[in-house]
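Q: Now give one record:
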Amino acid sequence: MKMRKKSELPTKTCAHCALPFTWRKKWARDWEQVKYCSERCRRAAPPDRSPPQSG
């Protein structure tokens, strides 16, 4: 993987605190599904109300 400057990394806005956060290597496999900047924000967010999937 090519080294990049931190300013060149992709960013998102946290769904709970609305602050911007940047890509981390530990999120490389599932960056599309990452919604929260930290574990604290993920726990504080309201539970997901999506219906259970049958299958």
Notes: The radius of gyration is 14 Å. The chain is about 10% helix and 10% strand. The longest helix spans residues 39-44. The beta strands are 11-13, 20-22.
